[in-house]
Amino acid sequence: MKARTARRIYLREAAIMLVVARLALRLLPPARVFAWAGRPPRRVRRFATDETAWVTWAVDDIGSRRWMNALCLPRALAAHVMLRRRGIVSRLCLGVARRNDAVAAHAWVEVGRDKVIGETGAEGFTRLAAFGGVSG
């Protein structure tokens, strides 16, 4: 597959997943969304770093566009779903931090020990919950 075709495919999938993630977060109860996000992938592929980079790029690119303007939680949820579809084990993490006498929340995605989505804002946040990964 040519790089141009792969870019289009990943961008299209990221746009669809971001819209679905935003709708799910608005319409469904949080317990249902996070229970679904906590399921492990059906198959596990251990060496798929190139696909992780493509997913990260596509979600960040589409999520930052003016017409989408996706915050950290829809971006993290979309990336988590895209990675899980490819058999890449990831964790959707939620954290909090105290910022200027207020509580701030942030969501990010980890693959192994690396933060792949939301890494720029994740420093200083204490992880409260993580969904996904492989049990056992």
Give a short synopsis of this structure:
The protein is of the alpha+beta class and 136 residues long. It is built from four helices and four strands. It has one domain.
Rg computed from alpha carbons, rounded to a whole number of angstroms = 15 Å
Structural class: alpha+beta
Average pLDDT metric: 88
Task: Name the helicity range.
Answer: 40-55%
Number of strands: 4
Unreliable stretches: none
What is the percentage of strand-forming residues?
15-25%
Q: Number of helix segments? A: 4
Major sheet strand order? 3-2-1-4
Q: Please give the oligomerization state of what you see.
A: single chain
Largest sheet: 4 strands, antiparallel
For the termini, the CA-CA separation is 36 Å
What's the shape? globular
Order of helices and strands: HHHHEEEE
Q: How many structural domains can be distinguished in the coordinates?
A: 1
Structural key phrases:
136 residues, alpha+beta
Account of the 3D structure:
The chain is built from four helices and four strands, in the order ααααββββ. The chain has helices at 3-27, 30-37, 49-63, 72-85; strands at 91-99, 102-111, 114-117, 126-132. The chain has one domain. Strands 3-2-1-4 form a four-stranded antiparallel β-sheet. Helix 1 packs across helix 3. A hairpin with a 2-residue loop joins strand 2 and strand 3. The N and C termini lie far apart (36 Å). It is of the alpha+beta class.
Secondary structure blueprint with pairings:
Elements: H1 3-27, H2 30-37, H3 49-63, H4 72-85, E1 91-99, E2 102-111, E3 114-117, E4 126-132
Helix pairs in contact: 1-3, 1-4, 3-4
